[in-house]
TrEMBL record, chain A:
This is Beta subunit of hydroxylase component of benzoate 1,2-dioxygenase. It comes from Marinobacter manganoxydans MnI7-9. Pfam families: Ring_hydroxyl_B. Pathway: Aromatic compound metabolism. SUPFAM superfamilies: NTF2-like.
UniProtKB/TrEMBL annotation, chain B:
It comes from the Bacteria. Residues 48-157 form the Rieske domain. Pfam families: Rieske, Ring_hydroxyl_A. The lineage of its organism: Bacteria, Pseudomonadati, Pseudomonadota, Gammaproteobacteria, Pseudomonadales. Belongs to the bacterial ring-hydroxylating dioxygenase alpha subunit family. PROSITE patterns: RIESKE, RING_HYDROXYL_ALPHA. Keywords: 2Fe-2S, Aromatic hydrocarbons catabolism, Dioxygenase, Iron, Iron-sulfur, Metal-binding, NAD, Oxidoreductase. This is Rieske (2Fe-2S) domain-containing protein. InterPro entries: ARHD_Rieske_2Fe_2S, Rieske_2Fe-2S, Rieske_2Fe-2S_sf, Ring_hydroxy_dOase_asu_C_dom, Rng_hydr_dOase-A. GO terms for molecular function: 2 iron, 2 sulfur cluster binding; dioxygenase activity; iron ion binding.
């Protein structure tokens, strides 16, 4: 999350906007989210989203291309995300069968702001994918708006900036 | 440039025997030497789509392309003409431009500093005194692509100095290109620089084309989603209603044109739904204005046709251009078993933002590496490639619907939507060029 971190103030970098305990909870949550995505646990991943007004955004061509002026790889509200889930679970969605084997490492988890129950967090990941005899390596940066609820963190807004978002890309056969 | 090279590496293979009327031999999808010959005999010879002129709107705007094996700079020069030049310094051959797009007054080679203007003229040679009077800078400009043609903003290029005119090459396919352009009430479309969905698949470039037979199987998961909706409004598959456009009992047709072009011709299937489309549009302010502006530009009858057709010609122009739904698609062969597919969403000019936003979301829903549609196409192309690697019973069947073809008055051939007219048209042009 180079850009957000470069622009962050010293309160974010030196002091930190959450407690150490809260930081560890956050890291556990993002690692858990990664595990659900790695194992294609679509329903359980979907339960992590909160509210009707959600955005799941994977920009295309650059990290900040405006989805109203340009195209996105994914730009889902809740209805579109629910249709995506329906398809991912369908045995006839050929690109997802057989399913990819995945491992991703989440790191660089830095909260940028904390206002009440709402937290803005950045992280990065590297991911190894094996499917039909082909190995792919993927890298990305994530930017979240999370809500801290009695049941744990929940996702309201998530943007994933793939390193190769302006390259000719093979099928993205998993959640990012 | 192409003719001499093909004499050097050309094979003696009898391509005529590999392409029959109703089947083709699978080696043409897998063999490296066939691919080499395709580059020389097809991609370095016939007309290729290069770019839409709106991608380089201002003087100095440029974009890099790959046309066959040639790296090409497309740049709008100081006289507002779009120049297509080989991106290769005339001194030692380095690329003179590395940025994939941008604006430039000149292109400087950073090997030894030679500089070219936007017309390609050599305007700066470092240490010029070391060359005697026989060195003429005028003879060392960037090499121009041999022929450039423009059909209503679509710029095509050919690496061969001789051959059919672009007008003849496109022939009756031109009126299908018009379906896209005239979806704009000002007859203007825009392709924004750098706004493009880029995908690749590990399969041959000839796999991706017009096929009206596959949707019920390849895209079955998408049809299930649509069946849960009340209407397919705004969807990118077929039209705006629930009638299946891929049924052989529907008025949808496959159509083959001269020179290898082919279309899934949904015009007759969509036309009866014009009234519903207009009703749908009239629910919003941008939609109402669109209908009004279309009628005042094209007259009621043609405006209704154009609205029903959705600006979707579903046309393949051999060998590298496809106009499908909301986008311009460019097919780039990398090797016999790797292909890049660039999909440029088309923005209509003279319409409210809501219309273009809806087009963008429809494009994303079906096209791109994480969409509903193209990943399953890519997956199947890769399964085909893996299957074709073994040449057991090597003939691939393309004979579907040969018994029900009809020749139309414009010389095009049509049959039912699942028939393989489109593949036959493509392969006969492939054979013509490969054996010429």
């Amino acid at each position: 999350m180079a850009k957000q971190l470069l622009n962050a103030g010293s309160d974010v970098i030196n002091k930190g906007v959450v407690s150490v305990e809260q930081q560890l909870r956050l890291e556990r949550f993002l690692t858990y989210e990664a595990a659900l995505m790695d194992e294609h646990e679509y329903d359980r991943w979907m339960e992590l989203w909160i509210g009707d007004d959600i955005t799941y955004w994977v920009p295309c061509n650059s990290d900040d291309q405006d989805p109203n002026a340009g195209v996105a790889i994914i730009y889902d509200d809740r209805p579109r995300l629910l249709e995506r889930m329906m398809r991912l679970k369908d045995k006839a969605a050929h690109a997802f069968r057989p399913r990819a084997r995945l491992i991703r490492n989440v790191s660089g988890v830095v909260p940028l702001s904390a206002k009440g129950e709402e937290l803005e967090v950045v992280s990065s990941f590297s991911l190894g994918e094996i499917r039909t005899g082909t190995e792919n390596i993927w890298f990305g940066k994530c930017h979240y708006v999370l809500v801290d609820t009695s049941e744990g963190f929940r996702i309201q807004w998530k943007k994933v900036m793939l390193l190769n978002n302006d390259e000719a890309m093979p099928n993205l056969t998993f959640l990012v | 440039m192409s003719t001499t090279k093909s004499n050097i590496i050309g094979t003696d293979r009898d391509y005529g025997s590999l392409v029959k009327e109703d089947r083709v031999h699978s080696s043409i999808f897998t063999d490296e030497s066939v691919f080499e010959d395709e580059m020389e005999r097809i991609f370095h010879k016939t007309w290729l789509f290069a770019l839409h002129e709106s991608e380089v709107p201002k003087k100095g705007d440029f974009k890099l392309l790959k046309l066959g094996r040639f790296p090409v700079i497309a740049v709008r020069d100081e006289n507002e003409e779009v120049q297509l030049m080989i991106n290769r310094c005339r001194h030692r051959g380095a690329q003179v431009c590395e940025a994939t797009q941008g604006n430039a007054k000149s292109f400087q080679c950073w090997y030894h500093g030679w500089t070219y203007n936007t017309k390609g003229d050599l305007v700066g040679v470092t240490g010029e005194e070391a060359y005697d009077k026989t060195f003429d800078a005028k003879e060392h400009g960037l090499t121009k692509v041999a022929r450039v043609g423009n059909y209503r903003g679509f710029i095509f290029a050919s690496h061969s100095k001789e051959g059919q005119s672009l007008d003849d090459y496109l022939g009756p396919a031109k009126k299908f290109i018009d379906i896209l352009i005239d979806a704009s009430p000002t007859s203007e479309i825009e392709v924004k620089p750098g706004v493009v969905t880029k995908t690749m698949y590990r399969g041959n470039w000839k796999q991706i084309g017009m096929d009206g037979y596959h949707p019920h199987y390849v895209h079955v998961s998408v049809f299930k989603i649509f069946s849960k909706r009340e209407s397919t409004t705004g969807s990118a598959v077929g039209a705006i209603h629930l009638e299946d456009p891929f049924s052989d009992s529907s008025p949808s047709l496959t159509r083959g044109f001269p020179n290898g072009h082919a279309a899934l011709d949904f015009r007759f299937q969509r036309l009866p739904h014009a009234k519903d489309n207009i009703e749908e549009l009239q629910r919003s302010e941008d939609g109402r204005k669109y209908v009004e502006d279309m009628i005042s530009r094209y007259g009621k009858e043609h405006a209704e046709e154009l609205i029903a057709w959705h600006g979707d010609p579903h046309l393949g122009v051999f060998p590298n251009l496809q106009l499908i739904h909301d986008h311009i698609r460019v097919v780039i062969p990398i090797s016999p078993s790797e292909t890049q597919v660039l999909m440029y969403p088309v923005f209509l000019k003279g319409v409210g933002q809501e219309i273009n936003n809806k087009r963008l979301r429809a494009h994303e829903a079906f096209y791109g590496p994480a969409s509903n549609g193209s990943p399953d196409d890519a997956e199947i192309f890769e399964r085909v490639q893996r299957g074709l690697e073994g040449d057991a019973n090597p003939w691939i069947q393309l004979g579907r619907g040969m018994n029900r073809e009809e020749t139309d008055s414009d010389g095009t051939v049509s049959a039912r939507i699942s028939d393989e007219i489109t593949q036959r048209a493509q392969m006969q042009e492939w054979k013509r060029l490969m054996t010429e």
